[in-house]
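Section 3.1: Structural characterization of target chains.
Under the original work plan, the team committed to producing a structural model for every single-chain target entering the pipeline before any wet-lab resources were allocated. The record below documents one such target. The sequence was received from the expression subgroup and is listed exactly as submitted; it comprises 256 residues.
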Amino acid sequence: MPTRDTAWPAGTPCWVDLAVPDLPAATAFYGAVLGWEFVDTGEEFGHYTLAQVGGRSAAAIAPVQPGQPSGSTLYLASDDVDATAKLVAEHGGTVAVEPFDVSGMGRMAVALDASGAAFGIWQQAGMIGAEVYNEPGSLIWEDARLTDAAAGQAFYAAVFGHTFGAVPGAPDDYVTFAVDGEVVGGMGGMMGAPEGTPSHWLPYFMVSDVDAALAAVGSGGGTVLMEATDTPFGRMGIATDPFGATFALHGGMPAA
């Protein structure tokens, strides 16, 4: 099982959480689809509930706060969240939630990039973010799907130092992005999303059987947006949970 106990490099996707209007329904849904087990951190932390794989945290689910929409937030690691928030504002983004401390865990902010996609910024202290990755139930990939891909690439290069690489066979505006030479996700246009869909980050969770996971989506009250499809990068599908949050399922990278 690929695990991590040290801080994620700055600019790397390091965590994802979901805000939901019905926590018990959400844990039942994601438990069936992704095999997660759950640990409620308690009333002090607003019942922020860790989703775990083999006893290690992979993501979290929490009740929506007043005025907060339901949906997922992908977090990018930072060594200095205040400095990163300043760069966000200087390069065409918006700081939606100013930096604040999460007691004993770290410091965070929430921002919008230059094309309007929301993301979190996480500076670890007691919690690094994801402790397991590239394993069934955990993050395996992330896409930034942007209404203005060029503006998005310029923004993330300036704020996080991302560098980009072409993907043979992918749309012309789709690239991988890397931190210190290591590819950590993808970035591009809206890739066929319905007209009017805002810019967003799409998390991909690995599963051992994409078809079975999509069947669990349907039986659990979610919606399958893209049926299981074989691609050069593995078998994938896209779905929404019962509350409308979109996520992708990925069967793992094929053998070289």
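The chain is about 15% helix and 40% strand.
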